[in-house]
Amino acid sequence: MIYAVIAAGGIGSRMGNLEKPKQYLTLKNKPIIAHTVEKFYVNSYFEKIIILCPDQWVSHTKSILKKHLPENDRVVVLQGGSTRNETIMNAIKYIEETDGLDDDTIIVTHDAVRPFVTARIIEENIEAALKYGATDTVVPATDTIVESQNKTTISNIPDRSKLYQGQTPQAFKAKLLKDLYYSLTEEEKDILTDACKIFSMKGYDVHLIEGEVHNIKITYPYDLRVAMALLEDEKK
Amino acid sequence: MLNTVYRLTQPRKFEIAFDDIDIFSGDIIVKPTHLSICNADQRYFQGTRDPKVLAQKLPMALIHEAVGKVIYSPDPEFKPGDMVVMIPNTPTEEDEIIAENYLRSSKFRASGFDGFMQEYVSIRADRLVKLPDGINPEVAAFTEIVSVSVHAISRFNRIAHSRRDVIGVWGDGNLSYMTCIFLKKFFPDSKIYVFGVIPKKLSDFTFVDETFLTNDIPEGMKIDHAFECVGGNGCQPAISQIIDYINPEGTISILGVSEYPVPINTRMMLEKGLRMFGSSRSGREDFVKTVDMYKEYPDIVEYLSHMVSVVKPVRNIKDMIEAFDLDTKKAFGKTIMKWEK
Fold first, then answer.
1. What ipTM was estimated for this complex?
2. Which CATH number is B2-142+307-339's, of 3.40.30.10, 1.10.10.10, 3.90.180.10, 3.40.50.920?
3. Which of A132, A236, B193, B330 has its Cα between 20 and 30 A from that of B8?
4. A54 Ramachandran zone, left/alpha/beta (phi>0; psi -120 to 50)
């Protein structure tokens, strides 16, 4: 079975002085999170769409989704964890307790603030996760990436042709992800920035899926302006 | 739901736009899988339409010939995974006399509103026809143009008198090829003669009774009825020749599109008491008939598969431009975009 796991963990601290976390801001008359969930909801491959958000936003998220997705029996809202990976583990725990986990249970994890994800990206993540076990959606890096060890001078400029910018979704065989995560030491867990790293640390291949430049993450007020501009109807 | 739409904003330039699909509107959501390029799309892409028309219609997503997979359906008649052909004509009223494709109030995809170059298409259930399992999607992609032939033949069947010993078809291109395949099925007892100008193209019409070069028509040639599938500048000599060779009271079905008014030998038309009628586009009934005939006669799909000239996987805008450019280089057949969006 295949599950969508939508991480809505952000508390909006990077979004200027706004009161709400960014996933609840309105884009084209609808909260961003509702746009994102719809993208998964229309796909019947997904057994359930599991949304994880901070504890104090669970009721608000449920209300929003009830309003915008009135027939939402496949939508579940849960409390997230202290880190992104703990959040994903909460989703896996829920799946295990409700439907059970097997070797082919796939989770497609996605940022709630990336509503422009496309059908192709989602489908290719699922297909590749079933085949290879883990996927990451990327686009080739356009800016030169500079490394600095001391925050003052350049220590390295990696070859840009080998660099990609990570997007989401990422998809995984859920049971394998869980087993690998709980085999890590606390020190190893501390340096994890995302779930793909668990696979690469443990020597597993993570398959790359071609993303889209427009699959933007709405993090800063600037991004919201860009998203609004993308949705302007040039026909009017 | 946010949906990616690939609109032509000016000749040779596609741009990404987004619209918001209401998934609870009652429409079916279809993911296009195979799109077929038509000359009408190509005229927008190349900018050969009147600049005023271009300014009025663009930006607009092109393509009105496409099949896809049902993703989401509130209608029990369709379920996720069903392969469907999408009908571009979209009527806004019903009329007991005038067919939906002739109602001036009807809208047409990639002409009056966005065509199928989209991530998802939100479409009314009555604008979908389910395809049989296992059908070649590259052929099914151009069902729309096939259904235009079926529409014209169905009308011919109602209009033309019953002596149909010999039916002549002028033209050696795609439209003629499709029309002939279906004429043989509709009227198995009639002789189908094809009149063209390129011997190599005529040699592909293996299923008809005879083919002739228009500059070498045998003396004494007589036909009961005719289909004009030439269009463009070739319209006038074709219609002129048809009027010369057709028997009195014959019916001429005009299918070729011409940008300019065409002079017609009305004296002889009157003397022979001929009937002439035009057909354009098609409606739901024609799509259903076409798909039923695919099921009944699998050799139709086999013959139509010879028309698949190029299959171009399309993942980005560069691929879209390449597909349209490839389409201009083909001598015959259809360019199919395998739509991976």
1. 0.88
2. 3.90.180.10
3. B330
4. beta
- Per-residue pLDDT of B68-118, as tens digits, reads 999 999 999 999 999 999 999 999 999 999 999 999 999 999 999 999 999
**B29/A42 CB distance under 8 A:** yes
B9, B15, B18: best to mutate for the A interface, most A CBs within 10 A? B18
Domain boundaries, chain B: 2-142+307-339, 147-278
Of A43, A119, A233, the CB nearest to B119: A119
Residues 8-67 of chain B with CB under 8 A from chain A are 9, 16-20, 23-24, 29, 31, 59
- Kindly report the pTM of this predicted structure: 0.92
CATH of segment(s) B147-278 = 3.40.50.720
The beta strands (E) that lie in chain B are given as 2-10, 13-20, 28-36, 60-61, 65-72, 83-86, 89-90, 107-108, 121-123, 128-130, 166-170, 191-196, 210-213, 225-228, 251-254, 275-278, 308-314, 334-339
Out of B2, B20, B71, the one facing A43 most closely (by C-beta) is B71
B1 and A28 within 8 Å at the Cβ level: the answer is no
